[in-house]
Specification:
Structural class: alpha/beta
Strand content: 5-15%
Largest sheet: 7 strands, mixed
Distance between the termini: 35 Å
Number of strands: 9
Shape: globular
Length: about 450
C-alpha cells in the first residue's frame, strides 16, 4: 500500500511509524491502549458529575460528554474511519481536517501514528471546548496526574533533601561537590513516568522508576549520551537563557523544576523558560494549571511530611517565579498534529522566541518523535539529519540559530538516532524487541538517549 508522507513541503520524506504495521508498538497502542485511556476519561467526567457539586445544566452536559467519549472508544475498537473535527473556533481545526482529507481513508488502526494520536486528543478537546464554560476549562487527566505525583512521595522527598544539601554546597563555593551529571540524570529519568503509556501503574511500579537507586541502575541503559558536550555548552553560556519544552506533569515536572533551579543556582542560566501545553494532551503532559497543582500538593503536610526540605524547595521556586527567572510560555503549536520539521514554516513567532534561547531542551518520547518526524530512521542516522537540521526548506535551515538537546526515555518504536558509541546496531535491535503484550512496562525505557545539536 502506498502511504502519503509529505502533507506540506517542510515535511520529512522518511516514512513514519504507522498503526497499520501489526508488528509495531504503534499498532499495540492503537488496538489496546487508546480505548483504555478514552474510557478512563469518560469515567473521570462521570465521577465529577456524581460528586453533585455542579449546576444541573453542567451535569447534563457532563453526562453527554461521557457518552460522546465512550463512542470514541467504540470507534477505536471497531477501527472506524477518522471523522473531521467539529469547529470549536480554534485556528488548528482547519489544518487537522485538511491533513485528514489528505490521508483519505485513515482508520484508527491504519494511519500514521503521530497524526492519529494527536487527532485523538484534539478530538476530545473539541467535545469539551463546545460544552460550556465549566467543561471547557476541565482537565480530564488531572486526577491521574495528581494521584501519580502523590504516589511518588518517597522520590519527591529524597530529591528535596538532596537538593537542600546541594544548595548548601553551592553557597559554600563547593561547586565541584554538586555533580552536574547527577542533575542531568534526574532530568532524563524523570521522564520514565508517562501515564499515556503506563495505563495501569501501581505504587510499586512507580517506586521502581524513581529515586537515586533507580537512576543509578538505569545508567547502563543509555544508548546515546552527549553529557560531556552538554556541560561544555552549559559552561559557555555564562548565565544565558535555557528553554525546556516540557513533557509529563507530576514527578517529571517536579524533577524539571529542580533541574531548572539548579541551572539558575549554579550560574549556568540567568533565566529558564518552561513550555507547557494549552489543553489536556497525551494524558500526563504539563498544562499551566499543573504547576499550580504541584505547588498545592507540596503544601499539604498530610501528603509530604518531610517539611523543612519541601518548604525550602517551594520557597526557592516561588522566588524564581516571582522574579521572572523561571517563566511559562505556552503556544498552540505544541498540540498540532505534525512534526517539529514544520516549526519554522507554521509557527514563525514561536521559532523566533526559541531562537532567543541559548539552549532548548526537549523532554520526553513524544517531543523526540516530533523532532525526528516519527521517522523510521536507520539506527546510525545523525541527530542533525533526523531533525532536519542539515537541510532547508522554503524558510531556510529548520533549526538555524537554535541549539537543541533531547532528553528521552525510549518507549516508541522510533529508535534513537546515534553513532552508537556504547552499543552495536544489533544490540539496539535486540533491546527494542518488546514483549508483545498489554504489559507496557515490558516495553518502556529499556533504553534512553540524550542528543545534542
Amino acid at each position: 500500500m502506498t502511504r502519503p508522507i509529505k502533507f506540506i513541503p517542510s515535511d520529512c520524506e522518511v516514512a513514519g511509524s504507522h498503526t497499520g504495521d501489526t508488528t509495531s508498538f504503534a499498532h499495540i497502542t492503537a488496538t489496546t491502549r487508546w480505548s483504555v485511556i478514552i474510557r478512563q476519561a469518560a469515567a473521570d467526567v462521570l465521577k465529577t458529575v456524581d460528586e453533585g457539586a455542579l449546576y444541573a445544566e453542567d451535569e447534563d452536559k457532563g453526562r453527554n460528554l461521557a457518552a460522546r467519549i465512550e463512542n470514541v472508544a467504540k470507534a477505536i475498537e471497531a477501527n472506524d474511519l477518522l471523522s473531521p473535527l467539529e469547529d470549536d473556533g480554534a485556528e488548528d481545526i482547519a489544518s487537522y481536517n485538511a491533513e485528514l482529507k489528505f490521508l483519505a481513508t485513515a482508520r484508527w488502526a491504519d494511519a500514521p501514528w503521530l497524526f492519529t494520536e494527536c487527532y485523538m486528543y484534539r478530538l476530545l478537546r473539541t467535545f469539551f471546548a463546545l460544552a460550556g464554560a465549566f467543561w471547557s476549562r476541565y482537565d480530564i487527566f488531572a486526577r491521574q496526574k495528581d494521584a501519580a505525583f502523590i504516589q511518588s512521595k518517597a522520590a519527591v522527598e529524597e530529591l528535596a533533601a538532596r537538593y537542600t544539601e546541594l544548595v548548601g554546597e553551592l553557597e559554600q563555593h563547593k561547586a565541584a561537590a554538586a555533580d552536574p551529571d547527577d542533575m542531568l540524570q534526574i532530568a532524563l529519568w524523570g521522564n520514565g513516568t508517562d501515564l499515556s503509556l503506563l495505563t495501569n501503574l501501581s505504587f510499586e511500579d512507580i517506586k521502581k522508576l524513581q529515586g537515586k537507586a533507580a537512576i543509578q541502575e538505569s545508567r547502563k541503559n543509555i544508548v546515546s549520551d552527549d553529557t560531556d558536550s552538554v556541560w561544555n555548552v552549559m559552561k559557555g553560556l555564562q548565565g544565558g537563557r535555557i528553554d525546556i519544552v516540557l513533557d509529563n506533569a507530576g514527578f517529571e515536572l517536579y524533577a524539571d523544576l529542580i533541574f531548572a533551579t539548579y541551572l539558575l543556582e549554579a550560574g549556568y542560566a540567568s533565566s529558564v523558560v518552561l513550555h507547557p501545553k494549552n489543553f489536556p494532551w497525551f494524558v500526563s503532559d504539563v498544562l499551566v494549571g499543573d504547576v499550580k497543582s504541584l505547588f498545592s500538593l507540596l503544601e499539604d503536610p498530610a501528603v509530604f511530611v518531610r517539611r523543612p526540605e519541601i518548604d525550602f524547595l517551594r520557597s526557592r521556586w516561588q522566588t524564581f517565579f516571582d522574579s521572572g527567572k523561571i517563566s511559562l510560555h505556552s503556544d498552540g503549536f505544541w498540540t498540532t498534529q505534525g512534526s517539529f520539521w514544520r516549526l519554522k514554516a507554521l509557527a514563525p513567532s514561536l521559532y523566533a522566541e526559541l531562537a532567543k534561547s541559548d539552549l532548548v531542551i526537549f523532554k520526553g518520547d513524544l517531543n523526540y518523535r516530533k523532532l525526528v518526524a516519527d521517522g523510521m530512521w536507520p539506527h546510525t542516522t545523525s541527530f542533525p539529519k533526523a531533525i532536519g537540521a542539515d537541510e532547508g526548506d522554503e524558510t531556510g535551515n529548520r533549526w538555524d540559530g537554535i541549539r537543541v538537546l533531547s532528553l528521552r526515555t525510549c518507549k516508541a518504536d522510533v529508535t534513537p538516532v546515534t553513532t552508537l558509541p556504547f552499543m552495536s546496531v544489533q544490540q539496539v535491535a535486540a533491546m527494542r524487541t518488546p514483549k508483545r503484550s498489554n504489559d507496557v512496562l515490558a516495553h518502556r525505557s529499556v533504553m534512553t538517549d540524550s542528543a545534542l545539536l
